[in-house]
């Protein structure tokens, strides 16, 4: 009896701990995980600049038709969620809209969007362009001299490494309808400065100032050229401009604050306390000159700011204000302040929660955690008939609207998520019900819980929260669609009934922030890492009277991926990039048979590279394996058809795959020569992974220029879903191996034609100048008389086909 009581106590206590974890944010842990996954082992850092360069080359290659498209005929369809936002740092009310209802917002991984009526919860957002060279939006500003001119800075430089590096500054001269990337910020002498553009402001002369990671840059010609206005040893944490044109800049290194009264020609330091880190500034626009009211807040890693200070004389002297527990230990990641435009005593400050003072900082009233959504990054007051009672907030939950947070007389403000159509959700992983035509998709997101989307195929739908926290991997039983597994950070997994959403804690946990595991649908067994690899949980009889036990693996630490084998009680384990016994290791593949059963055997079947395994996919048998690695600077794809006795790199220089993180890979079960990869540059594919050169090509039609974290295949109707980290979920359908193909018509681009029997190129089949065409049939390729290949075209016939 005592044992049963203790067991019940343990489960209840564990559930309490998990609930507490789910209600907290862990941006630093996300950052550390992302570093370990993508770090270049040779450099010892994450070379974000490579992704920017590869993205630019990809876009140019697509324009010039020099990039292979590999698997042809695949079109991705957006699925949502269209009601759940994502991390938003850029907000701007359209200065050309007389109603001041039109708002622009930028997702850090999902691009620039606009909404024509931010006051309406049902007014939808419209995306600008999914295929900018970079859709990591960090800031936005307009020119007060000519309000048709907008500037958008890319890159998110607040240390959160699941974000992307920027590619410069985009400019619009027609009020946001069309945009172009400023060459001076992408390829000029200051291009490195614009990899992370923290803030942009424009003065009444039209001069543009950009806060970057190496100082303040100034342009007097609309961004055609730039010059250093204020150099710095750390990144510019904030840049503000007063109503009289006076500039204020803050730096992260030493909490330095500077002021310029001559349009950035010279600067004077006005730092109140130089011993902290990131500083956020806010100016009272109803004051100016020698009476300028300034608020400043500094981070030192605590739950409260290091200090909150105020100056009523433009920075000549400062007073320390009452402190408040705003930051939750993550001020380096989320910290923002804004002053009411007509009331210098009303200030809104945000960290992981929102706070407001109505008496100039003497007292603060904090909102409860999660109301509105945690992690605040942008605050804008909306003018309406002379009042500024309405407030718009950008945070990790997207865009939040309050009709009354700017009203000091309202002690109980209202907050509403206005995210209709604003699909910038950052997914980690997904799963689908294995029912043909069914719309049920389950996925874990960054700081937006585990969501289910149930809209019809090829229809964008809303998401419903089924589990809290940072949802990580999710699983749906492919034989029993009512059985699902959901989790939050650190791997507190639940069994969930998909018909009722009722959940049961499985009693398993993990030592990793983003854990790895896999579910065996055939045998209702769940495997999940427990102690970074030295032990792994095995949950038997999921969906019934389950039992949870963990077993030693004899695998070194730093397990990064687990895949359930085709044989019962068999798992494949991949290791991450780790330090062990005085040396660095990585890229090892282990096969464990009879795991957790009598006769367990652990066998090292491959040491692929110095890097971390990001996925393992099984082909027709357990002898055929596809392995990916996500680190920069390593060969990212390996293939074996003999159980690991021999591995072949499928990522050589001539193979066409850029040096970017490869997050996931899958075989096409209809044609196992075909492979799809989820990368930080969308989805790539090969028509023949067994070929000496797999000929990787981009497969992004209908998708977006976005980082993709996982692919999931559903056998019932050959549907593939991709989890993007910034644009939600997309799906497509793979086709079965075609037969008896007769090609007609002219070919002007790049194509690969596969057949399980034969291909006939008849008299109307012309491979035009500059085109590249490959015919691959299992039995034969027949070119009938008058089949034509024009000059400077490339035609290849292969007797291989698809199986």
What would your notes on this structure say?
- The protein has three domains: 28-52 and 446-733, 7 Propeller (Methylamine Dehydrogenase, Chain H); 79-417, Methylamine Dehydrogenase, Chain H, CATH 2.130.10.10; 741-799, no CATH class.
- The longest helix is centred in the first third of the chain and has 21 residues, at 2-22.
- The chain contains four helices and 65 strands.
- It is mainly beta and 803 residues long.
- The strands form 17 sheets. A four-stranded antiparallel sheet has the order 1-58-57-56, with no helix packed on it. It has a four-stranded antiparallel sheet with strand order 2-3-4-5, with no helix packed on it.
Question: Rounded to an integer, what's the Rg over CA atoms?
Answer: 28 Å
Going by CATH, the homologous superfamily of the largest domain would be: YVTN repeat-like/Quinoprotein amine dehydrogenase
Query: What value does the average pLDDT take?
Result: 89
* Poorly predicted runs: 1-24
**Range of strand content:** 35-45%
CATH architecture of the largest domain: 7 Propeller
The residue fraction in helices comes out at under 10%
Q: Strand order within the widest sheet?
A: 1-58-57-56
InterPro entries: GCX_COOH, WD40/YVTN_repeat-like_dom_sf, Xyloglucanase_GH74
Signal peptide: 1-19
Keywords: Signal
Protein name: Sortilin N-terminal domain-containing protein
